[in-house]
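Please, structure for the following, as C-alpha cells.
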Amino acid sequence: MVLGQRLADRTVPIEHAFADVESLLRSRAEQAVARARENDERQLKEFGAVGRWLRDRAFPLFAPLIARQLEQQYAFTPGV
C-alpha cells in the first residue's frame, strides 16, 4: 500500500519511490528483528537449559498444526 501511494505521486521518480519504501520497510524489519532477538534472549534466561531442550524438541511437533490453522484462517476464498 505504501509503495502504491508513492508510485501514485507522479512527481516523484519511480526509483525514489522504491528507495523511500525500502528505507521505511527496512527500518521496520530491523526493529522487528531486534525485538525478536530480545525476546529470545529473555526466554533463554527464563527457560534455562532444560526448558530450551524441551522447547527445541516440542516445536517441530506443533509447527505443522500451527501452520495448518494459519492457512485456514488466512485462506483466500474467491466470492466470499
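The chain has one domain: 2-74. Residues 2-74 form one domain.
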